[in-house]
Amino acid sequence: MSDNVRTFTDEHTRSHNRSPEQSESTDTEETLRCPECDGQLATDTEHGETVCRDCGLVVEEDEIDHGPEWRAFDSNEKDQKSRVGAPTTNMMHDKGLSTNIGWQDKDAYGKSLSSRQRQKMQRLRTWNERFRTRDSKERNLKQALGEIDRMASALGLPDAVRETASVIYRRALDEDLLPGRSIEGVSTAALYAAARQAGTPRSLDELTGVSRVDKDEIARTYRYIARELNLEIQPADPEQYVPRFASDLDLSDEAERRARELLSTAKAQGVHSGKSPVGLAAAAIYAASLLTNQKVTQNQVSEVANISEVTIRNRYHELLEADEQQSVA
């Protein structure tokens, strides 16, 4: 009798001294083991059961499936059946959290609405659009982000650049930097800064071609927001323009590599100081095409880079002279 009491007391003491983490881990181990043969359990998601791998005992059944009730066999079918919304994004003034009423005047079964229902839906769309912008600040943001998206599409900039430009514009709006400046000017300057930060720069002339403001206003606004927002933007590297120019001119990889070598030599000798990176990149592309026996005219390079042929000729001679000095040295 005393032995049984002593055994019970020892077990009670051990269980009392066991830490909560040890108790939890022990409980978890017990739930992952079969109660009959102590085998390993497996979850059958298709039938909603938990089964022992060794003896086949069904430990749990009719489990809740937290996934969708539909099945899809490719990405297109998955996108069509999915009923969740898009992720939040800074490229929309409400970050994509508002509701949009579709323009196809059809019901859930694809049937066309009656004329009365169509009029009702049109009124709902109108009021929904009004409620999406609650004040002048949101209307300002909506217009600016639309401008950024339009210009980025025209320039072929990726979504990451659009997102960064949207964040820069939001910061400028929050810090009250817009009074006295146009929405188009600040949005263009934000896109110019974002493109340079992402390593996919566009020249001021290219921005001017798609913007509704002139070149001087873009440059002036860019310097202002870069200074006020403390944007860390490195000077544009001519080599960043080379892949795009080479692609537009259908040049080979050899010509692109040669153009990069010419620019590297020019930077090592300080030839690039005080000169337009776009002009240097265009001249390097032209020189590389001649050195690799690929016929490209100065006029073609001028149209792609949006600079004059005189600039290409001047920078072209400077790059070749720097390359010759490097070869002699």
From TrEMBL:
SUPFAM superfamilies: Cyclin-like, Zinc beta-ribbon
Sequence repeat residues: 146-229, 240-321
InterPro entries: Cyclin-like_dom, Cyclin-like_sf, TFIIB, TFIIB_arc, TFIIB_CS, TFIIB_cyclin, Znf_TFIIB
Bias (Polar residues): 87-99
Pfam families noted in UniProt: TFIIB (PF00382), Zn_Ribbon_TF (PF08271)
Binding site for Zn(2+): 34, 37, 52, 55
GO MF annotations, alphabetized: DNA-binding transcription factor activity; TBP-class protein binding; translation initiation factor activity; zinc ion binding
Keyword check for Heme: no
Residue intervals of the TFIIB-type domain: 30-60
Gene3D superfamilies: 1.10.472.170, Cyclin-like (1.10.472.10)
GO BP terms: transcription preinitiation complex assembly
UniProt keyword Zinc-finger present: yes
Function: Stabilizes TBP binding to an archaeal box-A promoter. Also responsible for recruiting RNA polymerase II to the pre-initiation complex (DNA-TBP-TFIIB).
UniProt xrefs under HAMAP family: TF2B_arch
Family: Belongs to the TFIIB family.
Protein name: Transcription initiation factor IIB
Organism of derivation: Halonotius roseus
